[in-house]
Structure formats: structure tokens, C-alpha cells
Design goal:
The chain has 357 residues and is α/β, with parallel strands linked by helices. The chain is built from 13 helices and 8 strands. The chain has an 8-stranded parallel beta barrel, surrounded by 5 helices. Helix 1 links the parallel strand 1 and strand 2. Helix 1 runs parallel beside helix 2 and helix 5 packs parallel to helix 6. Bound molecules: phosphoenolpyruvate and manganese (II) ion. The site of phosphoenolpyruvate has 10 residues, from helix 4.
């Protein structure tokens, strides 16, 4: 389905100027914290202020947002500082309250985007309204689900839309709080080229040191904007303390960003090449992971006095992988030859382990 989109047309914002910056605390906590943070951000030239009023929290009992009493604080930010304001909506009631308070931009969070009933409820509440809506990726890396959510919002008549890539959750938490999996937004861009893409490096990294490199990566991939969590006193934040930066650190990060403008004419090719680079990196990561496991198997075999090459297992891998490859549209011979090469390296690594004393 083609989406019927219009430019975001945010008053006072030059959308050609990358990045379009949205910044502000994870949560609105107190009127003072909101005003203090917004004032500092405005002094650095930030024009769009974010703050969560209703907070989706993983466990009950945490701070779930100040709720409606926080809306007048955002209105103060609009009136006194001339900023546009945005907050997260997750239910029809949130939408109604945010619209009544004349919040400039609404965003739908990652947990909500994973639930078609919730997205539909929001879409229905937005029918007949002309507001920019930003849709985060769903928590799971399901591009169709993400696009399906965009279609629901668009079909309700919302044409000023953008997406926010904030990464995908995983069982094992490693470097990132949410895995970037950049190929997903790149594919979304290929499918819906006129949809502006923001990156949220704060939720992606989960740590303030990662905000700068992730922002740079998003700019290198041609993203339109950044949504970054900034707080006047990050260490004391009531939610997401580790990933928030002070307004002056945010200014420093933005100042250091290198913005390269990709040539329009080769954009599709550029996009596809970037996708290839990302996938190749993933392949290498996965191969390295596989080799680490092989080395562990090597230690096991050594301890139990087994030979490195177990012929039956090898034959099984080759024929299974060949068939799995065919199911994915590749030739049996191609897949077999890849696994032969992988096996050879795997054996070499195991022999190395065996020969270590
Ligand atoms: C947020 O922006 O504060 C938030 C809850 O983000 P996400 O939906 O990406 O987890
Ligand atoms: Mn947050």
C-alpha cells in the first residue's frame, strides 16, 4: 500500500537542514525540571522539546509519568520559549488530552507500535485531525508490523508523519540496550522513500557515551533527524538516568556531528550499498561468533580425548545447510561451498586449541 504523505511542515523548522533535533527529558518530572531543561535547550538553539507525560514502564511500581498535570508545563514551554513540544501517546485518552492541550507533535512509543489494537485505537482517535505523528519502530524487528502501524495512522488521515528508529530489544543485553539493526530502517527507506527517519540514539544505546557515535552513524546513513534525551540533572532523572545527557553535552555532541550530503542521483545505489556493508559486517560478526563456539568445542574434545573432525556431524551440516539455502533461493552448491570453507576454518581453530598446552 502506498502511503499518502505530506511534508512535516513544522512551524519555524527548516526540514532540509539535517539533523532536525528533538530533545528533552525522558519524563516530565516537575514543572521546574521541565522549564529548566527546556530553557537550557532553547538557549542552544533546540526548537523541538520532548518529554514523556505517560511513561510505559517494564515493571509496575516504577514512575509511570506525571500524567495530565504535566500538560500545562509543556504549554509553558510553548508559550515562554517558543518551542514546539511533543509527547508520547499510547491510548485514545492520551490522544484526546494531548490534542486538547494543543501539543504540537505526537509520538507513538515502541511498545505501543508492537500492538495493532493499540495503534488502531490511536488512529481512530486521530481521525479528522491534522497533527504530525512520529512512529517509533516496534520493540521487535518486524518491518511489516512497523509499516502496518504506519498504514493504520495514515489511513486515519494523518499525512504529516515520520518514523523514529530506536533499535530492537534482545534477550541478551550487550553493548546496546536496543540493537540498531540499521538494515531495517534502510529497507523502510527503500520501501517508503519520502518518510523522514529520525534516530533515537538514547534508547538505542542505553548509555550516554553511545549517543554521539550512534547519532553520527544515523547522519552517515542520511537520516533526517535525531530524538535525544536531555535532562538538566541526568543522574537524578526519574527514568532512563544512564542514557540522558545535559543540554550542554547535547550541544557539544551536535556540534561535533559531521553532516555529509549524499548525492541525490545515486541515492538508491548508495542506500543499497550501505545495506550491503551492514549485512557484510553482520556476517563477519556471526562468523566470529561461530568460531568462538568452535574453539569451545575444541576444548571440550581435547578434554574428552575426541578427534577434531567428527565425519558424521560434518556430513549432516553440509546436507542440512545446502537444503536450507535452497529454501532461501540460493543454489545448493553455493551454500555447500560456503560451509566447506567455514568448516575448514573451524577445524583450523580447533586444531590450534588442541595444540595449545
Ligand atoms: C521514550 O521515548 O521515552 C520511550 C519510552 O521510548 P521507546 O518507546 O522507544 O522505548
Ligand atoms: Mn526514555
Amino acid at each position: 500500500m502506498e502511503l499518502d504523505l505530506k511534508p512535516l511542515a513544522l512551524p519555524g523548522i527548516d526540514e532540509e537542514q539535517r539533523p532536525i533535533v528533538i530533545a528533552g527529558p525522558c519524563s516530565a518530572e516537575t514543572e521546574e525540571q521541565v522549564m529548566d531543561t527546556a530553557r537550557q535547550l532553547a538557549s542552544y538553539g533546540v526548537r523541538i522539546f520532548r518529554a514523556g507525560i505517560w511513561k510505559p514502564r517494564t515493571k509496575p511500581g516504577g514512575f509511570e509519568g506525571v500524567g495530565e498535570p504535566g500538560l500545562p508545563w509543556l504549554q509553558r514551554v510553548q508559550k515562554e520559549l517558543g518551542m514546539l513540544v511533543t509527547t508520547e501517546v499510547a491510548t485514545a485518552h492520551h490522544v484526546e488530552a494531548a490534542l486538547a492541550a494543543d501539543i504540537d507533535i505526537l509520538w507513538i512509543g515502541a511498545r505501543t507500535m508492537a500492538n495493532p489494537f493499540a495503534v488502531q485505537e490511536i488512529a481512530d482517535a486521530l481521525r479528522g485531525v491534522d497533527k504530525p505523528v512520529l512512529c517509533k519502530n516496534p520493540v521487535n524487528p518486524d518491518l511489516e508490523l512497523w509499516i502496518g502501524g504506519l498504514e493504520r495512522i495514515n489511513q486515519a488521515g494523518i499525512k504529516r508523519m515520520a518514523v523514529i528508529h530506536r533499535g530492537f530489544s534482545t534477550y541478551e543485553k550487550r553493548l546496546y540496550r536496543n540493537l540498531p539493526m540499521w538494515h531495517v530502517p534502510i529497507e523502510l527507506h527503500r520501501r517508503i522513500p519520502n518518510m523522514p527517519i529520525f534516530c533515537d540514539p538514547s534508547h538505542m544505546g542505553g548509555r550516554r557515551e553511545l549517543v554521539a557515535p550512534l547519532s553520527q552513524q544515523a547522519m552517515d546513513l542520511g537520516f533526517a533527524g535525531l530524538m535525544i534525551e536531555a535532562h538538566c540533572n541526568p543522574d537524578c532523572a526519574w527514568s532512563d538516568a544512564k542514557q540522558q545527557v545535559t543540554p550542554d553535552v547535547l550541544d557539544f555532541i551536535l556540534d561535533k556531528l559531521v553532516i555529509r550530503n549524499s548525492a541525490q542521483t545515486t541515492e538508491t545505489l548508495e542506500t543499497l550499498r550501505k545495506q550491503i556493508d551492514i549485512v557484510d559486517n553482520q556476517l563477519l560478526e556471526q562468523l566470529a561468533h561461530r568460531m568462538r563456539i568452535s574453539r569451545e568445542i575444541g576444548s571440550y574434545k581435547k578434554k574428552h580425548n575426541m578427534t577434531v573432525v567428527q565425519t558424521r556431524r560434518y556430513g549432516e551440516i553440509l546436507s542440512k545447510r545446502g537444503a536450507q539455502g535452497v529454501l532461501r533461493g540460493m543454489s545448493n552448491d553455493f551454500v555447500k561451498s560456503i560451509f566447506e570453507a567455514i568448516h575448514e576454518e573451524s577445524v583450523r581453530q580447533q586444531v590450534e586449541i588442541m595444540n595449545k598446552d
